[in-house]
């Protein structure tokens, strides 16, 4: 690509619009320097110098204008973002791209997301945005470029969502056990996915245990740590009668990560994928808005396991603990209440 630019064989590239960021202000200064020295630069080479600097300085533009097969970026618009990342829509003559950036976390977070999206995409069940490129930002941080999906006016039909999600769980199997090929993140919290043949062991160590250790380290919260450890040691009977197989999970399924496309088909995004017990997918149901039609359709494809109701709060506990570690004490009481209830039920 660089050699082609040096030889001037890509005349169709147009200089991208300059924006009021430090990077683009620097680009404007570069252009002024080129103009001031134009007597020393052959006319056929002037645009090439600009493109080389602009593209190498902005890996997002570079990918879109090369591998993304666009020749012109016509607009960049913010489409909001969560409390972790920034999100933008890039409109080009070859279509639109969805781009997320994070100014402080390296590419590993988005690499984990891309692997999860690809795994869900490969099941050919529920729609997810296809990832195209992950990389580092030259000023620090990272980015991910993916398919832009035009969302519809609602979250879609709950019964269709339940059916499609169950189909993904049924299709996405692993012969390696419980875990994932890479560690990833839940929000910005590291999520350890070391493979294990035992679900209770995996969930104890890499989900509840990890979050409890983080709360102890971050807040010095010995009370929730000690009670949580008692629960971990005593929770085995909650799984009696359940047949647990590793299923591909989205991992962070709340209302903000659920939508529908223009045709009404459900779309799920921003995953924290791993292979686990399918019931763990409902751990964020306290802010997902799943209704009766969702569960009815889901259980038609993936039958309800014995003891489902007994385990529901256990899977919520992981996410309450994570919210406590991410956002502070507002979530502590919910996590502690679940722990106390289980300790009483289990007489632990």
From TrEMBL:
Give the source's domain of life in one word. Answer: Eukaryota
Q: What is its EC number?
A: 2.7.1.172
User: Where would you find this protein in the cell?
Assistant: Plastid, Chloroplast
Q: Which GO terms describe its molecular function?
A: ATP binding; kinase activity; protein-ribulosamine 3-kinase activity
The Swiss-Prot or TrEMBL record describes its family as follows: Belongs to the fructosamine kinase family.
Give the enzyme class.
Answer: transferase
**Role, per record:** Initiates a process leading to the deglycation of proteins. Phosphorylates low-molecular-mass and protein-bound erythrulosamines and ribulosamines, but not fructosamines or psicosamines, on the third carbon of the sugar moiety. Protein-bound erythrulosamine 3-phosphates and ribulosamine 3-phosphates are unstable and decompose under physiological conditions.
Q: What is the lineage of its organism?
A: Eukaryota, Viridiplantae, Streptophyta, Embryophyta, Tracheophyta
- The name this protein carries in UniProt is Protein-ribulosamine 3-kinase, chloroplastic
The reaction(s) annotated as catalysed by this protein in its Swiss-Prot or TrEMBL entry are: N(6)-(D-erythrulosyl)-L-lysyl-[protein] + ATP = N(6)-(3-O-phospho-D-erythrulosyl)-L-lysyl-[protein] + ADP + H(+); N(6)-D-ribulosyl-L-lysyl-[protein] + ATP = N(6)-(3-O-phospho-D-ribulosyl)-L-lysyl-[protein] + ADP + H(+)
Give a yes or no for keyword Plastid in this entry. yes
Q: Name one GO cellular component term.
A: chloroplast
């Amino acid at each position: 690509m660089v050699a082609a630019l040096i030889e001037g064989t890509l005349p169709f590239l147009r200089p991208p619009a300059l924006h009021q960021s430090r990077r683009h202000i620097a680009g404007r200064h570069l252009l002024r320097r080129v103009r001031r020295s134009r007597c020393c630069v052959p006319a056929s080479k002037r645009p090439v110098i600009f493109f080389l600097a602009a593209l190498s300085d902005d890996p997002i533009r570079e990918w879109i204008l090369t591998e993304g097969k666009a020749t012109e970026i016509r607009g960049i618009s913010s489409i909001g973002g969560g409390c972790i990342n920034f999100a933008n829509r890039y409109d080009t003559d070859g279509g639109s791209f969805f781009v997320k950036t994070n100014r402080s976390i390296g590419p590993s977070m988005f690499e984990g997301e891309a692997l999860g999206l690809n795994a869900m995409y490969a099941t050919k069940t529920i729609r997810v945005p296809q990832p195209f490129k992950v990389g580092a930002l030259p000023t620090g941080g990272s980015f991910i470029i993916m398919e832009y999906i035009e969302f519809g006016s609602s979250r879609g039909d709950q019964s269709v969502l339940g059916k499609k999600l169950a189909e993904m769980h049924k299709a996405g199997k692993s012969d390696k056990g419980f875990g994932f090929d890479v560690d990833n993140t839940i929000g910005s919290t590291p999520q350890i996915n070391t493979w294990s043949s035992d679900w209770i062991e995996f969930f104890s160590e890499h989900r509840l245990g990890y979050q409890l250790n983080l709360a102890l380290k971050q807040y010095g919260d010995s009370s929730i740590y000690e009670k949580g450890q008692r629960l971990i040691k005593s929770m085995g009977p909650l799984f009696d009668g359940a047949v647990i197989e590793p299923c591909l999970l989205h991992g962070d399924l709340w209302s903000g990560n659920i939508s529908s496309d223009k045709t009404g088909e459900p779309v799920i995004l921003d995953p924290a994928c791993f292979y686990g017990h399918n019931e763990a997918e409902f751990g964020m149901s306290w802010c997902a808005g799943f209704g009766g039609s969702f569960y009815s359709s889901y259980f038609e494809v993936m039958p309800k396991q014995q003891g489902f109701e007994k385990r529901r709060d256990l899977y919520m506990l992981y996410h309450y603990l994570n919210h406590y570690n991410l956002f502070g004490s507002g979530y502590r009481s919910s996590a502690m209440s679940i722990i106390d209830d289980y300790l009483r039920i289990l007489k632990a």
